[in-house]
Fold this protein.
Amino acid sequence: MGINPKGLSDGYANYQTQTKNHTLINYQYCKANPKGYYGYSDSVWGLTASNIKDGYTASSPTNDQGFIAPTAAISSMPYTPAESMAALKFFYYVLGDKLFKEYGFVDAFSLDVVKNNGAWFADAHLAIDQGPIVVMIENYRSGLLWSLFMNAPEVKAGLKKLGFTGPGL
């Protein structure tokens, strides 16, 4: 969340391209919905590690069990602003108080009443979810946290030593 991928590269990757493409893979997979989970769409997406009914898993296109983690879509705002905003609006305005509670969005949910025996909403709020949501919305909005972190002399020196190139390095 602190390292700004814009223009950042090393001998292995262009991180601006990588972060956007990884986010688009997540989005496109949920939009295509190859497993036919109820509710997945261009407004209901976001696979990452989260609680699931009766457990915990690291959800991804290769490990999709039908549970959406709001933090995955919302904290992708700098990379997919339109897609992330559509998800945020659906989560907040459509699912409302089932998903958004006193401490923010719950960890995960499933709308699939067929495969999961009824819609399910986590009752947990995790700081590891709430933090990225706040930080990445602000990075999208102003780039503030990226700027503060990337301007730290120790960060610049470390990235240079590791072979990274990019703005301000």
Notes: The helical segments are 15-32, 70-74, 81-94, 127-141, 144-150, 153-161. The first helix runs from residue 15 to 32. The CA atoms of residues 78 and 141 lie 8 Å apart.
